[in-house]
Amino acid sequence: MRICALVSTAGILRLRRLLPSLWSIQQTNSIEAVTSALASGHGVVVVDPSQLVSASLGTITRAATRTGHPLIVYTRLEALSICRICEVTKNATAEVVFHGADAESALLERRIREVPSSSASSLVLRTVISVARKLPQGLDTAVVGLFGGLPIPASTGELFDGARLNGRTSQRALKHAGFYGGNRLLTAARLLRTWEGVQASSSIERLADAGGFRSARTMRQSYRRILGIAPSQARLNLTVDQFARHVLDAILMSNS
Question: In degrees rounded to 5, what are phi and psi of residue 152?
């Protein structure tokens, strides 16, 4: 696997530590090198938007759109990165992996191997990021992290504590932005976290634990409540796009 990576020094060290040793990972600071890699279609392009000014990011995004070659966005989750990721995802196909994501190594490798396919996570995150930009600082990153692969809080209290806001203020801000509320966000994020395992027919018990559900029964109930069908039926009857739409319908007022 050949990778052209426009990332920070810390980012390239993470990539080389987390990805298979036989992969060729070339760091670059050149916009021309990135656009050339996109034009050639050989290998995968990884970018950290926080390392780029808006004009340079726009050049890369336009090149990705023109060539139809998806980007892998690999960055730290910060207020600035939300704005920059939004710039990328509104115009180009991109998979987003945050530093510190759950099972980061496996997630990053899977996203790179699956290019050019889009994951349910990327389809949901694209919309979540655009809405989360309306939230107060701290709550925006907490919500984006839920759908961006970071560890899922055990409760809304823990979610809001991470944002350094009280529960009432957070719930009001979520609804003002267009989200239904914290409980729905947590349940939808857990469903999203289990989807790829459901597609692969993995053990429901193991998936429920990894997704933060109390039990396999709770996970099945959540699938039926949000999707209208059990996990085993969802695997057979829903496409990735359909599953992503169900998740968005569950969390966004404008989708209902």
Answer: -85, 125
What would the pLDDT profile of 2-14 be if each residue is shown by its tens digit?
A: 999 999 999 999 9
Q: What pLDDT, on a 0 to 100 scale, did the predictor assign at position 43?
A: 87
Q: What is the mean pLDDT of residues 76-98?
A: 90
Backbone angles phi, psi at 108, to 5 degrees: -65, -45
Per-residue pLDDT at 255 exceeds 70? no
Stated pTM of the model: 0.90
Q: What is the set of domains in the chain, with CATH numbers? A: 2-117 (3.40.50.2300), 129-255 (1.10.10.60)
- Secondary structure (3-state) at 6: strand
- Counting residues of the chain whose pLDDT is more than 90, the rounded percentage is 85
Which amino acid, one-letter code, is at 212?
G
Angle at 108 between CA 44 and CA 232, to 5 degrees: 115
pLDDT higher at 72 or 254: 72
Q: What percent of the chain has pLDDT over 70?
A: 99
Separation of alpha carbons 25 and 191, rounded Å = 33
